[in-house]
Amino acid sequence: MEYDSEFLEKRKLEGYLTPKAEVREIAGKGKGIIAIAPIKKGEIVSITGGVIIPVSEWENFRESYGDYAYFIEEEFLIAPLDPKNPTDEWRMNHCCEPNCGIKGQIVIVAIRDIEVGEELLYDYAMTEVDPNYEFNVVCHYSSCRKIITGNDWKKSELQEKYKGYFSLFIQEKIEKQK
Ligand SMILES: [Zn+2]
């Protein structure tokens, strides 16, 4: 089966980024999302749009999508329609001390009050379950894990820290383990 732009266009879901934030260049980091108005704890900051891709088809996409895709269920990922030019909500970077978390699977909310000028950040552990996934990070926090993996959700300290802010299917996996 071929995946052409027409096929992807048919599967498109529009995303959302709060008007209280915008994409900017961040020194040494590339693009990121910065708050331009105060955001209250619990507010929706973004809803991820793009295309839904079954894990069984992911191999056809992996090379072109790279890091611009994440799990929304064990069997499905969401990815931007155009990985070379992803929509704004895809520009949220990782942090080991994040101010945003997942509500459901594609809704991202503030996990504390966020001030103007702060970068909006979530922890990739909240969505990542690929056991082969590895991503090097530097966040300048003593809690920085340096290497983010698809097994981080299994860490009890993270399960405690992000309770209610993991993607729903991961939260359910955690509950089942207990
Ligand atoms: Zn870190």
Give unreliable regions as ranges.
none
What level of helicity do the residues show? Answer: 10-25%
Terminus-to-terminus distance: 41 Å
Shape, principal axes of CA atoms: globular
Q: Total number of β-strand segments?
A: 14
Structural class, from secondary structure content?
Answer: alpha+beta
CATH-defined architecture: Beta Complex
Q: Identify every distinct bound molecule in the structure, by name, code or SMILES.
A: zinc ion
How many domains? The number is 1
**How does the major sheet shape up?**
4 strands, antiparallel
C-alpha-based Rg, rounded: 16 Å
Output the CATH homologous superfamily.
SET domain
- What oligomeric arrangement do these chains adopt? single chain
Strand order of the largest sheet: 1-6-8-7
Describe the structure.
This protein is α+β, with helices and mostly antiparallel strands. It has a single domain (5-171), classed as SET domain (Beta-clip-like, Beta Complex). Helix content is 15%, strand content 29%. The strands form five sheets. Strands 1-6-8-7 form a four-stranded antiparallel β-sheet. Strands 2-5-11-10 form a four-stranded antiparallel β-sheet, with no helix packed on it. A two-stranded antiparallel ribbon has the order 3-4. The longest helix is centred in the last third of the chain and has 10 residues, at 168-177. The termini are far apart. Zinc ion (ZN) is lined by residues 96, 137, 139, 144-145. The site of zinc ion has 5 residues, from loops.
